[in-house]
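// run 5 | inverse folding | seed 20
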């Protein structure tokens, strides 16, 4: 999963290139390419949604750990399991809602709603949300297992007992 996360993080590079190209073309010719808005939307959406699971795996998300820092290891594990349950609940609700939407979009070969002359198919983009939610739920389950049974924590990750 780490290799996939690093690969996903590289989506920012074509996004930067598209924005620079669009800006330069607008500055030089006074017109922007018709495709740059939607392609940058697809790239950033994919980068953001798929990158969330990687961020969760690397434990790089924003968290307030003032209480956790001073708490005993058993409380840290309980708090960790509770936090992962909240994440898992939210992600599973989004998964429950997004899969039927993605199926409908695929069935009708949904196109962009921005009504630009480019008008690309976006049904494939609808699958980014369920895919990222599935990855997040998998990571959340792995994290919970690591909190409940520290010996099952993924290699290279500290258990709460080692941090204190």
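// decoded
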């Amino acid at each position: 999963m780490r290799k996939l996360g690093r690969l996903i993080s590289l989506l920012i590079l074509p996004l930067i290139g598209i924005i620079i190209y669009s800006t330069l073309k607008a500055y030089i010719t006074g017109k922007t390419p018709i495709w740059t808005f939607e392609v940058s939307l697809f790239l950033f959406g994919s980068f953001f949604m798929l990158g969330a699971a990687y961020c969760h795996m690397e434990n790089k998300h924003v968290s307030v750990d003032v209480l956790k820092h001073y708490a005993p290891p058993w409380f840290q594990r309980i708090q960790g399991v509770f936090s992962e349950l909240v994440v898992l609940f939210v992600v599973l609700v989004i998964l429950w809602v997004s899969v039927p939407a993605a199926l409908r979009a695929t069935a009708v070969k949904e196109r962009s709603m921005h009504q630009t002359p480019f008008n690309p198919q976006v049904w494939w983009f609808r699958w980014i949300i369920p895919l990222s939610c599935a990855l997040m739920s998998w990571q959340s389950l792995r994290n919970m297992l690591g909190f409940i049974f520290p010996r099952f924590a993924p290699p290279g990750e500290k258990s709460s007992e080692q941090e204190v």
